[in-house]
């Protein structure tokens, strides 16, 4: 393979990878200088000229002519007078010899190695460019097409043919994609695995929901409305605390839009995730009340030291506060940063009920705590449920639930 063919084939490959001309020339020169160092020990006294467009390569070895008896005759940048006269008879001592080195002088094996090195350098450069590109896009929404569905992840392809990964853990549980579908997600992180960039996407991150709001709500994008915090149970429910420093703007109304037009677009993208938009406030009691919506709170007692809040509600409001699957109270706790304990206000007909703490000698305290977290603070409130409902709400073992019903039931049988 001569120099022209080598350079032209490399240049064509580099251009197909969108490598700019200065970078292409730099890589070519680096590789040829590495060849020179391997054969001649140094490249300091070599001049390399490359014209990638024409496929031209010129390598000149530059040496100073010294006397045949000179002590410097063994220096790499020196040549004896006798050797120089073989190149050009009229050379004189002290002059410089420019000796052209043909590519063939390096040997066929060295040229083949150079070709492989050039291709590998471009591939490495391509990986670095891809890593840098997506490193800057971390936290931003991208769209890509599904091209392979695996058990633990979905592989997608961006517009430039780069592979992106959407792991199962970063998918909404209700997501169902087919090959060829276009998927929206945020760039969650970019890892390097054995020198190859791995671009990990996410649809479960709170940041994904935040970016969707920025796309649908101009006031959020422009900074007129600030998203203070987002908590999510992906695909089920989310709570978004928003605030505006402009009194003329209703942050909740702006995010929801006329007849829900803005938030509906977000909800559809998130597989009908139920989104509560809440007006942020420094008033803790009011913030808790808003976070537990749609339940109506009767009274609140907060403990700053233990970061726990006791919320009292009428019996018909307890299930609303807890929400389906307990998501409402879980998300409210995470949004506020306090553990919320729900208590029912007892009316006169319920005064004969017994507080669960009375059973601490028979029921482990951690089980009582689990029951209280779901708003079950009395014996009758527990017994009013079926065993299946209690198992689902608390995630306790069936044997444990049976024992709870037995102990509480005995109290009223007596």
From TrEMBL:
Source domain of life: Bacteria
Location in or out of the cell: Cytoplasm
Domain S1 motif: 139-204
SUPFAM superfamilies: Nucleic acid-binding proteins (SSF50249), Prokaryotic type KH domain (KH-domain type II) (SSF54814), Rad51 N-terminal domain-like (SSF47794), Transcription factor NusA, N-terminal domain (SSF69705)
Biological processes per GO annotation: DNA-templated transcription termination; transcription antitermination
GO molecular function, one term: DNA-binding transcription factor activity
Keywords, in A-Z order: Cytoplasm, RNA-binding, Transcription, Transcription antitermination, Transcription regulation, Transcription termination
Signal sequence residues: none
Entry's Gene Ontology cellular component terms: cytosol
InterPro entries associated with the record: DNA_repair_Rad51/TF_NusA_a-hlx (IPR010995), KH_dom-like_a/b (IPR015946), KH_NusA_2nd (IPR058582), KH_sf_prok-type (IPR009019), NA-bd_OB-fold (IPR012340), NusA_N_sf (IPR036555), S1_domain (IPR003029), TF_NusA (IPR010213)
Gene3D superfamilies: 3.30.300.20, Nucleic acid-binding proteins, NusA, N-terminal domain
PROSITE patterns to which the protein is assigned, alphabetical: S1
UniProt cross-references to HAMAP family, sorted A to Z: NusA_B (MF_00945_B)
Family to which the UniProt record says this protein belongs: Belongs to the NusA family.
Record NCBIfam families: NusA (TIGR01953)
PANTHER family cross-referenced by the UniProt entry: TRANSCRIPTION TERMINATION FACTOR NUSA (PTHR22648), TRANSCRIPTION TERMINATION_ANTITERMINATION PROTEIN NUSA (PTHR22648:SF0)
Described purpose of this protein according to its UniProt entry: Participates in both transcription termination and antitermination.
Annotated protein name in UniProt: Transcription termination/antitermination protein NusA
Organism: Algoriphagus antarcticus
Name of the gene this protein is made from: nusA
């Amino acid at each position: 393979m001569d120099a022209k063919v080598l350079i032209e084939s490399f240049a064509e490959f580099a251009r197909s990878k969108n490598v700019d001309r200065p970078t292409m020339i730099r890589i070519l020169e680096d590789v040829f200088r590495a060849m020179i160092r391997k054969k001649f020990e140094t490249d300091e006294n070599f001049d390399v000229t490359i014209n990638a467009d024409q496929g031209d390569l010129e390598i000149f070895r530059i040496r100073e002519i010294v006397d045949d008896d000179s002590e410097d005759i063994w220096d790499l940048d020196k040549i004896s007078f006798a050797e120089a006269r073989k190149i050009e008879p009229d050379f004189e001592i002290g002059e410089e010899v420019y000796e052209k080195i043909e590519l063939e002088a390096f040997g066929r094996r060295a040229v083949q190695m150079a070709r492989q090195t050039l291709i590998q350098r471009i591939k490495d450069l391509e990986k670095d460019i891809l890593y840098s590109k997506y490193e800057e896009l971390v936290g931003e929404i991208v769209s890509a097409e599904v091209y392979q569905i695996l058990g633990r992840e979905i592989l997608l392809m961006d517009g430039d043919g780069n592979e992106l990964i959407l792991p199962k853990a970063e998918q909404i549980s209700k997501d169902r994609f087919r090959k060829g579908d276009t998927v929206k997600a945020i760039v969650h992180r970019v890892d390097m695995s054995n020198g190859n960039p791995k671009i990990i996407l996410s649809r479960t991150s709170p940041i994904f929901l935040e970016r969707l709001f920025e796309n649908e709500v101009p006031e959020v994008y422009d900074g007129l409305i600030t998203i203070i915090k987002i908590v999510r149970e992906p695909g089920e429910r989310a709570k978004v605390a928003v605030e505006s420093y402009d009194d003329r703007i209703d942050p909740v109304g702006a995010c929801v839009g006329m007849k829900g037009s803005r938030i509906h677009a977000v909800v559809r993208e998130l597989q009908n995730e139920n989104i509560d938009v809440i007006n942020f406030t420094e008033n803790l009691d009011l913030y808790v009340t808003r976070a537990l919506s749609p339940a109506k709170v009767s009274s609140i007692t907060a403990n700053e030291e233990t970061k726990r809040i006791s919320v009292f509600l009428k019996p018909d409001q307890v299930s609303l506060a807890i929400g389906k699957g307990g998501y409402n109270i879980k998300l409210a706790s995470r949004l506020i940063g306090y553990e919320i304990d729900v208590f029912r206000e007892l009316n006169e007909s319920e005064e004969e009920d017994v507080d669960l703490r009375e059973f601490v000698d028979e029921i482990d305290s951690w089980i009582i705590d689990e029951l209280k977290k779901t708003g079950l603070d009395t014996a009758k409130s527990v017994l009013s449920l079926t065993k299946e409902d209690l198992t689902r709400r608390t995630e306790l073992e069936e044997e444990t639930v049976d024992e709870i019903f037995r102990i509480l039931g005995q109290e009223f049988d007596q």
